[in-house]
Amino acid sequence: MTDLIQTVTDGFTSRFDAAPAGLWSAPGRVNLIGEHTDYNDGFVFPFAINRRTLVGLGLRGDRQLRVASSFAAETVELSLDDLTPENLAGWSAYPLGVAWALGQFGADLATLPGFNVFIDSDVPIGAGLSSSAAIESAVAVALNDLWQLGLDRRMLARVGQLAENRAVGAPTGIMDQSASLLGEADSAVFLDCRTLEAEVIPLGFDGAGLDLLVIDTRVSHAHSTGGYASRRASCGLGARMLGVPSLRDLTVDDLGRAADVLDDETFRRVRHVVTENQRVQDTVRTLREQGPTAIGALLDASHLSMRDDFEISVPELDLAVETARGTGAIGARMTGGGFGGAAIALTPRALIPAVTAAVTAAFAARAFAVPDLFVVRAADGAAREQ
Ligand code: GLA
């Protein structure tokens, strides 16, 4: 974090000839369990991680918006008068999309002043750890403060989601921004995506001698194209054919009827979502009653369901999961939207080097890209830093 504070302070000052009015940060996230359930009004159980995006922001005397970052040479400039999703493109669509989305949630964009913003991040991009939600959430809390909007964290999560949906064009749910905004150290966020009721639940990994290992496969993915949207469409179709508002309204007892009504592919998509919702609730209960060493089988089952029913895994993710399990992880699954990105392996601390070596060797043997493995801790959500 000290590094980010330095680069953002220096970057802001050199691009904008002034110090920022403040610094705000927001984390990436790992989803422990509950995949593709958020846009089906279901349950998710993610946590904020100790990788963060930091933004420096200062208001201007005019209506210009200027966006710069340490990952692009250019400074993007736009007037608040021209701020529409159609006018946004590239990486600046994330921060500027948030400014636009705040207007949809009550900010009076016709009268507010413009701003300068500089962004840096140590959340890996394209790894499935929600680098985009980290940017959106950091900018959302910063503008909420400086524009004095008074929106609460749940509302800011919806702002970030709207930016992602309309400005970036990815039809994603509410999970990532909620984790980034509501997370707390050593805990995960049990979120009901229908009511947005959230409960922060201690994970107890440390006390149980466990670490959460992230295996970034380096297979990059984008949710604004292809598979993510088609899975979402299948879920919508399944719900319509079964006569329910969303798949959240089904339980495992309904799967027999679903099998009769739906074609095989739609049925398997539905079965993933219905059983995954159940697994999230089982994970939360198991964690409370028996502690984290007892949740491994639920993580494993979640991966199989994504591999076989929802069909969003890739060979690299499957190999990461199988190898981690084979060398001592107590549970493992791909995390995030799928089609690439990262897997997670809940692993006894002493076995982290062995699992890391085994996964790296297994990837080399299959001539896959060199994976990046690192331990993450559950961290606090978005905050003002200075
Ligand atoms: C991506 C989306 C989330 C969620 C997950 C899958 O991370 O941004 O909203 O749908 O995929 O669980």
What is the average per-residue confidence, as pLDDT, rounded to a whole number?
97
Compounds present? alpha-D-galactopyranose
The structure class reads alpha+beta
Number of separate strands: 13
Shape: globular
User: How widely separated are the two ends?
Assistant: 12 Å
| Low-pLDDT regions | none
- State the major sheet: 6 strands, mixed
Number of helices: 11
Helix percentage range: 40-55%
Strand order of the largest sheet: 5-4-6-3-1-13
Radius of gyration: 21 Å
Order of H and E elements: HEEEEEHEHHHEEEHHHHHEEHEE
Beta-strand content: 15-25%
How would you describe this structure to a colleague?
It contains 11 helices and 13 strands. It is α+β, with helices and mostly antiparallel strands and 386 residues long. Helix 6 packs across helix 8, helix 7 (255-261) runs antiparallel to helix 8 (264-290) and helix 10 packs across helix 11. The longest helix has 27 residues, at 264-290. The protein is globular, with a radius of gyration of 21 Å. The two termini are 12 Å apart. The structure holds alpha-D-galactopyranose. Alpha-D-galactopyranose binds at residues 31, 35-36, 38-39, 172-173, 175-176, 223, 336-337.
Brief write-up:
With 386 residues, the chain is an alpha+beta fold.
Comma- or semicolon-separated keywords:
22% strand, alpha+beta, 386 residues, 11 helices, four-stranded antiparallel β-sheet, binds alpha-D-galactopyranose
